[in-house]
Structures are given as structure tokens and as C-alpha cells.
Amino acid sequence: SQKIEQNSEALNIQEGKTATLTCNYTNYSPAYLQWYRQDPGRGPVFLLLIRENEKEKRKERLKVTFDTTLKQSLFHITASQPADSATYLCALDRSRGSYIPTFGRGTSLIVHP
Amino acid sequence: DVKVTQSSRYLVKRTGEKVFLECVQDMDHENMFWYRQDPGLGLRLIYFSYDVKMKEKGDIPEGYSVSREKKERFSLILESASTNQTSMYLCASRMSTQETQYFGPGTRLLVL
User: Fold this and answer.
1) CA distance B99 to chain A (A)
2) Are B3 and B92 in contact (CB under 8 A)?
3) Contact B100 A103 (CB under 8 A)
4) To the nearest whole angstrom, how far is the Cα of B21 from the nearest Cα of chain A?
5) Is A75 exposed, middle or buried (0-12, 13-18, 19+ CB in 10 A)?
6) Pick from A7, A105, A112, B20: CA 20 to 30 A from residue B80's CA?
């Protein structure tokens, strides 16, 4: 069965630096991958979607890459700010063509002023 | 903007009680979902609905049921609450032609 791995350890970085979060998956070839942000006690909020035929996608300070050979997605936040501190979840389709995602457990990002 | 609302932010119930969690979305989305989220386990799908009066089991449906009588409303029912159902419950909705899910704020349920 498919498996999604996100680093369970929190990522601590200094304000202004680039944060890079990793999402690895195994036993599967997803058609798309999504990234969500979740603040404590709140529901996840969609950030970006990248499809298997796309290598990279950008939105303001956010950048997502999708390497289907490595079975990995990287999520970058440039010029990070304390307000970027949150948990970031990746999600991929649980079967090809399915609109139902399977979520990773998320990685906590802490940006220090 | 899509808005998904959940009936309660916090709820305290006793073991054996019947519990109703309500979710309403205002964007005419066909698909709706119920998840629970627990530390270390991530988001787990309980039930989802493709459309009115339709429901499908997710990964952990045991102990839960759902109801979708109107397109905008999706209810999660705990028939007889147990302490292991203490969790954060999240509702989500989505257009049937798009992958993105829109989540509600969550209901933190404590079963004593």
C-alpha cells in the first residue's frame, strides 16, 4: 500500500531563511500532490497542487517541486517569517484518478525572529 | 470564498451518549468528507459522500455513521460515544471536478 513520509521532527529556522520541507512516498505513482498548511486547533488550508507532469510550481514565496523518479516533493518557503510557523501537510491521490487524498502526518515549521 | 462551518468548536460528552457533529458548506460542493485527527496519526478518513443521500466508508468507519439529506450539510453521528473517540474532527468539502479540499475549523470532542 502507498506510504507517505514527512519528517516528524520540527524544523526550526531563522527568520529570512528558506525553509524546505520534504514529502516522500513509496509504493505508488500519484497523479498529483498537494500541500496544506495547518495552524494549531484549526483545519488545514490548501496552498498548492502540483501534477505529475509538472516539475515545479510557485505561488508568491512558496515553491513546490515534484520528482517522480525520486518519489519526492519538496516544499520551499523563501524569506520565511514567524507567521509561517505552522504544520505543513502533503497529500496525494489515494489511487490514480481519485479525488480522495491521503494525507501525510505533517511537519511542524517554527520560524524564529 | 468557500466557507465550511462546523456546529461546535468544542464538545464534551459522556460515554454511551449519541453525538451529532454537523458540517455545512456554502459553495454547492458535491463531495463532503469527515476526518479525525490524532497526534502522531495524522488525518484519517471516516466517511465521505459524493452527493446527496450517498455515502462511502473511509478508512475508519467503525463506530460512526453519516447522513447527507441536503447538499450543503453532512452530519457525522457517533451512535454510542466511547473514550477512544476523543479526537479532533474535521469536515471538508470539494467540487467533484477538483482535487482541492476545503476544511472546516474542526470540532474538538472529549468523551468522558
Assistant:
1) 5
2) no
3) no
4) 15
5) buried
6) A105
